[in-house]
Each structure stands twice: as structure tokens, then as C-alpha cells.
Amino acid sequence: MKSFNPLPQHVAARRRAQPLTYQPAELYRLPQLRASRVLDADFDTAAAGLRGWRVQASVFRVRATGPALSGAVVELGFGLGPLVKNFYCRVTDVIDEPDRCGFTYGTLPGHLERGAETFTLTRLPGNRARLDILARSEPATWWLRLARPVIDLARGALTSRRYLRALG
Which of 64, 73, 84, 151 can pair with 79 through a Cys bridge, CB separation 3.0 to 4.6 Å? Predict the structure, then answer.
């Protein structure tokens, strides 16, 4: 279930070479946002949507190097017309088990936040599924840190209204 357009190879190569905007050991000190929802979709259908960037496509224009697999680069575009701002992330970890799947991606330079977000899908009885989202991040610049309360409200709304409902 593909919900993205291809990211040009020259953009992908440049972004793959960039370091993440955080050190992995820092993640546990960053503020976190957790959200969870039992889906109205079967596990296999939801898993295909998750790997195909459907959650992100519920909010952003998505271009990616491919499905959400280790090392994949994703461009998330937000805005309208010429006022689109693109942010980049790279998949750092993948869960691929019979009853669980998902991935973590980390922010790359130029992103408005620094940190990582994990999307985990768990098979429930009756082949239903639960989507869990864990974001550990903070604004990337001092001026965005000043707006942190507003950003947190917007992020919470985005997660609960769009991300958690994107797979069914």
C-alpha cells in the first residue's frame, strides 16, 4: 500500500550521507509524546500501510527512497504551493516480527525538530492491530524552543487526529 512518490536519487544520496541531528544516547533525555490506538483494520493491511508511509501521508506530502526499511530516507513536505517546507528523516531501526512490525526514523539537518519517532504495530486477537507511536524530540532551534507549548499542542493534535487514524 504505497502512499509516497519516489525521492530523486541525488537527494537521497546527499541525505543518506548526513548525520542524524542527535546522538542516540541523547534520545532518552528528550521530551516524549506517546499515543496508541486499536485500529479498525486487520494487521496485514495496516502493516502494508505503515511500511508504505501511509501514516506520514495523512499529514505530509511524502517522497521516499522506498518502503520504511532500514536506511530509507523520507522527505516530508508541509505547506501549500510554493510555500512548501521539506524535512528529512532516515529510518534507523526496523521491527519485522510475525506479530509486530514498525520502524524508527531520526531527523536529519534542516528538520525543525531533533529526535526520533517510532511507529509500532502489534497484532491483537482476531487479527486486529494496535498502533503505538513514541516521539522523542525537541525543537531544533532556540526560537522554536520559545514556542514549545504551542508546538506540543499542535503535535498532540496531529498525532491523535491524523497519525493514529491513518491506518484504519
Answer: 84
Please measure the distance between the N-terminal and C-terminal CA atoms of the chain and give it in whole angstroms.
13
Give dist(CA 81, CA 65) in Å, integer.
23
> 69 with 52: CB under 8 angstroms?
no
141-165 residue pLDDT tens: 888 888 888 888 887 777 888 999 9
Q: In whole angstroms, how large is the CA radius of gyration of the chain?
A: 15
Q: Which fold has domain 9-165?
A: Alpha-D-Glucose-1,6-Bisphosphate; Chain A, domain 4 (3.30.530)
- Overall pTM surpassing 0.85 (yes/no): yes
3-state secondary structure (DSSP) of residue 163: helix
